[in-house]
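Reply to dn_fold:

You asked what the input looked like. This is it:
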Amino acid sequence: MLDTLPKNKKIILFDGVCNLCNSSINYVIDHDKQDVFRFVSLQSDLGKIIQEHLSIQNTSLDTIILYIPNETYYIKSTAALKIITAFPGAWKLMHVFTIIPSGIRDLVYNYIAKNRYNWYGKQDSCRIPTIELKSKFL
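and this is what came back:
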């Protein structure tokens, strides 16, 4: 199944029932004018296979993963920064946060991840993409 992943796309794995995560994915979709990203729910069969392939133990589904097939992957705050700095304009300025060690950035990330359902809510099931967006979800 991994060999069918698009090699020229960056794949974002996200918590499919988290409202904050879904809002973030909607933002990426709306601003991905170069069609760089594809999306996979962490809860999906493919999401589980990719996590296993990367040896990521993520039972609490509390991370975002940016997977670049046959190259590398990033998790938590580093993944978020890599995604947001892929956009033009002022978003490139977010790159300055990479000077902060990932361990410190991830403390903030983990605090938000731990509270995301309380603050933003949660859906009963993973998002079902519209027909127009179906090609962006793997």
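The chain has one domain: 2-132.
Hope that clears it up.
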